[in-house]
Structures are given as C-alpha cells and as structure tokens.
Design goal:
Elements (H helix, E strand, L loop, with lengths): L13 E8 L4 E6 L5 E6 L13 H19 L3 E7 L5 H11 L2 E7 L17
Parallel strand pairs: 1-4, 4-5
Antiparallel strand pairs: 1-2, 2-3
Amino acid sequence: MAKSKKGGTKVVKTGKIYISASFNNTLITITDEEGATICWGSSGKSGFKGTRKATPYAATLAVEQVVRKAVEEYGMSDAAVYIKGPGPGREASLRAIKAAGIKINMIADVTPMPHDGPRPKKKRRV
C-alpha cells in the first residue's frame, strides 16, 4: 500500500504511530491516516536479543530507526501516537519520537483494561 500506482513512493505528511510495549519487547508500527502500514520495527529487529530487548535503550534505538525511515522515505512531519502495554519502553519511545523531529499531535493510551474481569477463585478452606 505504501507505493503509488506509478511506482514512486507516496508522501505521507501526517500519520499514526502505534507502540506496543510489553515486558519482553517493544513493537513500533507507523501507518498513514487510513491505517496502511508504512514501516515497522522492534527492539529485536534492531539487533537486541534476550533480556536486553526489554530495556528502554533498546526501545529508543528501535523507534529512532523506524521514525528516521518514515521521515526520509515518506516525508512524515507529524503524527498521533497510540501506546499499548505496561513495558519499560513506553516513555523512552515517546522521547525518541520527539527527538527525531516528528511533531506529536496526540498521545493516547490504548492499553486494554478489563471492566470486571474473570470470576475469582473460590475461597481457600484450611
């Protein structure tokens, strides 16, 4: 979807950045306004393995790589950021987006929260 019909790369001025920060990894996906994926990356794709993937530093490097590609290839200048998950890469990824030169229009936390959750275990009898 990122290529236009004539073969050239389309210009995306505004887009959406989705960050999924789990306890083991940080995933980044950049889309255009319609939701078509432009580029993506993760801490693992950036070269980190094992527990080092779950660090804020790994998240920073991953976000910098993906945002740099979006800015250079597609001309992205501002974006809305959607963050999901409780991982250590949450704040670090926001700082990396800001440092890369993309203007942040909106930050939304889309972490799924249960309203009531599953039924609790029965009371323990001793």
